Fold these 2 entries.
Entry 1:
Amino acid sequence: MTQERRLYLRGGIPLEGDVQVHGGKNTALPILAAALLCDEPVRIENLPDISDVRLMLSLMEGLGAGIERESASVVVVDPTSLTSITPDPALCQRMRASYYLLGALLGKAGEGVIARPGGCAIGVRPIDQHIKGFRALGAQVKEQCGLLEARAAQLHGAEIFMDCVTVGGTINVMLAACRAEGNTMIYNAAKEPHIVDTANFLNAMGARIRGAGTDVIRVRGVSRLHGCSYAVIPDQIETGTLMIAAAATHGDVTLHGCIPTHMESLTAKLLELGARVDDYDDTIRVFAPGAHRAVSFKTQAYPGFPTDLQQPMSALLTTARGTSTIIETIYDARFHHLNEMQRMGAQVRIEGRTAVINGVIKLHGAPVAASDLRAGAALIIAGLMADGQTEIRNVHFIERGYENIDLHLRSLGADIHKA
Ligand code: EPZ
């Protein structure tokens, strides 16, 4: 039996130096699925080398797509040879973003069958809005024996009002609609950078999507999509995690190849707690020599404070002076990391979707386990701040979304290794 890898950290070292941000996970996954819609091969660059991307590529290969890896970050997808409309159910259950294959298959082949997608355990995660969108476009959608089937002789444009702001729902409807007959309007659309990047990629293949990044998106259906070469935007959440790590360790880190405007809600909070943040074109410097003040925030859809950074940020706040209150509005179970950090001396009270953190002077290292991807990132931040050794189990969660985070942090001076 192979032993699960663990991360070992010794904290208390200020992170210092320069680091390059990788391509975005939550952009790469829909863009890969979107490549299936094309009628010619497509080249995608700046993919992060993470397990979720590898899983998406396996799912696509299983459908008959040609996948040629030019390097760890560049892939050519040939979607002209699809032989199946059913991505491997066991693999779908391992990753929520597998749902993008349903929108793409529906748009390309008029039918798709997926197992209900899995993903990180952070609360209830329905996909009713995706289904509502597909139905509005004229698809028959039914679920039996855990499989979701969507079929349409011809998709046609429709007016769709999303009942909640959903990243996945907005993108999935865009995927299905871009080859539908006529115009589709998506109201109450999500505005995350991933939406804009996926729309830009679809447009680079000849789709006609306007309004991505606002809450009304218009898709004019086209009959054909052509090949292109496209680079995925930098990872907003990796950028934020590294910014928080720099501040948490009272370090001085310059991040390169990132998009400062995507980070404004986090930057505002880091300034409020006493760190300094300097933005340049595609570079952000975070330095934080002094003590941190407690700050409070609520997670929100973009441009609000992202739920995916709530966990790393709340880890930092466990040692800020005073009491921080965090309200998690997106998911109902995204505080497991704070429970785990109580083993490291964090003082936290959790009531439903609210966490109240009383800052302590220091955390101490302890054996802890990641319960999901960003919980793992939060435990890394905690370990970087703590006295003594922290051992993090369930590293596979972290590997879903952070490329070589141990090497990244080590290049900034952290005492961290995987074994
Ligand atoms: C995406 O998930 C991200 N995943 C998540 O990142 C991220 O937390 C989330 O967006 C919010 O920013 C990917 O991009 C692969 P949603 P998604 O649909 O699209 C409710 C990470 O750590 N909802 O925007 O699945 C839902 O329950 C991951 O990288 C419905 O009610 O999230 C949630 O409360 C975790 N019905 C809220 O909307 C639906 O049909 C937002 O979910 C869809 C969603």
Entry 2:
Amino acid sequence: MSSSSSVASLSVEGDIGVVTLNSPPVNALSQAVRAGILENVNKAVADPAVKAIVLICEGRTFIAGADITEFGKPRKDPPLSEAQDAIENSPKPVVAAIHGTALGGGFEVALCCHYRVAVPSAKCGLPEVKLGLLPGAGGTQRLPRIVGVERALDLLTSGQHVPAPKCLEMGLVDEIVPEGELRAGAIAFARRVLAEKRPLRKVRDTDEKMVAARGKPEIFADFRKANARKFRGFQAPENNIRCVEAAVNLPFDEGMKAERKLFEELMSGTQSAAQRYVFFAEREVWKIPDVPADTPVVAVKKVGMVGAGTMGGGIAMNFANVGIPVTLVETRPEALERGLKVVRRNYENTAKRGRLTNEQVEQRMGLLTGSLELESLADCDLVIEAVFENMEIKQDIFAKLDRIVKPGAILATNTSALNINEIGRAVKRPEGIVGMHFFSPANVMRLLEVVRGDTTSKTAIATAMQVGKKVGKIAALSGVCPGFIGNRILAARTRQAQAMLLEGAMPWDIDKVLYEFGLPMGPFAMSDLAGLDIGWSKETSKRATVREALCEMDRRGQKTGAGYYDYDESRKASPSPVTEKLVHEFMAAAGNKPREITEQEILERCVYAMINEGAKILDEGIAIRASDIDIVWINGYGWPVYRGGPMFYADTVGLQTVVSKLEEYGERMGAADSAISPLLARLAKDGKRLQDVKNG
Ligand code: 3HC
């Protein structure tokens, strides 16, 4: 016998009722799925032939969570809790059969089942914290009852996906069944439950792990303290922690009420709205309107790197990490040797931290070949150049590569500053030229800006995006302009920071405001970290800026023990009287009288200048959509994800406010930043949002 709706069905196999969900792509708990579970579980319960129930999913995964697209819209019946109650209160045992990922609400449904089985490749988790939320369907109350308080705190605040074998160890699943045999394995397990007359086990009724933690508030205090840095600025981890406190201290139903309240608090806040926006933005960023998903790509089986410096070595590691061999070319043997040594040291440090085995280190190093001849790159499918930022040198290299490297191969440049259209003029295959701008350290930072020149082919773009995905990056497409998306916006912020320095704000005043806003550091701390002498030379230095003056004094940042800040032996920064004096000298020379600059002004001038620049980038078609700009700033510069990126943030502030503030600061902002983007002005006037703008 079987009955079905479009997304859920019941089939009866002997004494087992199998409720199957089928709602691609990820069986999210939409209204139809919730209704489908409720209806079919009730049907199975009512069917006298059915003695036990298996809940299983079609497609690539078990239920991957609530349907995020329904968030923020009016709720539709039935609520998830009704479907969960039907399962948990079923007089017949219900077994969840898990493959793919049982996440969020999906795992919370599984936790209401009396038993859970999974294939070895399955993963379970409560990743709501990554959406600025907490598991709002009993997950915070049931999880600690199984795994205990410490582990629950860890899982809830990290949102990690736990592999099935580990779930078995923790008691989150009861049995692992062979890969590809989930349905049969789950049915067999259900029959065993019946044969052995196992109880209808309800997680909600198990209390011993909660009792054990009662009266020990230090567990929570210690956890908060240990993770303070990681949780800085985020609301969701704290609310998750409070839920576990409730699980420990309150009866189950009271704990559920506390969970609901804390969930609603997050759901109605801007942080979760931002994090949910970023979830979709991370998926949208791969979609390029005129480069469809089926665009032919070059199969990248071998990569060439021109330049084995910090950048080249870091980029090469990305490929070695996924098993793609790389040939690194340098001009001098010492440089090559040094480059490969740095890579080896990086891998060995990772191994020391236990994240790689020595064998893996050797395997990866074995994929890297050094060479002093560009000719060794002849059979590469993709060559990435990462040499000194000089147009003549680059054009020369690309002209040579064009002659050497096999036809059809993609030639990419890691330039962060030069016009790739000009580089394209040096070759006879301008369609194969593309920018692949990695961020330093290139083996760590997630962002890759793929830069499309006037002549770049769709295949070159699709290949660069795809290879970026393969090495674990998040790739955003940018058109050609100085600084591309990320650094162009950074330049706007730098202009404001530098301007305010000469109006009376000290570097640490400005850095503090941006740090408190949620960035990992402010512009001056960032300069000190990167080195103040990037692009500076003693010979040409004119002492025209505070930075140049600092460089001339050998205060070149952290590496020299001093820059804008003074540093102690452990690289702890403190405001520097030397810098302060220097700033006052420059102010006097410019005829400026220092004035009190409020924290509000610092924040608004820095951030609104970035927003304005972002709007210009969008208006010029350099970025496809506002959310791509946000992806760049979150992944390349540490913009706090809970503020959704500068474009999303602008929408939360209100574009009218941004525009009127820019007007108010006016000339103080300088010519480039006081010119308001026409797009921004238009949207503000029409009451529209940046995040809705799309090019193409
Ligand atoms: N709701 C709605 N759509 C979802 C979704 C969800 N929970 N999860 C994934 N999707 C969509 C994606 O947007 C994407 O759509 P697209 O093809 O139109 O771009 C499609 O499903 C496929 O997703 P991915 O590209 O991410 O596919 P992967 O195979 O790489 O990853 C996944 C699959 C691991 C399930 C990943 O999609 C994921 O992590 N999803 C979110 C899981 C999650 O956060 N669940 C908790 C939700 S909140 C909740 O449950 C609240 C509850 O406590 C009450």
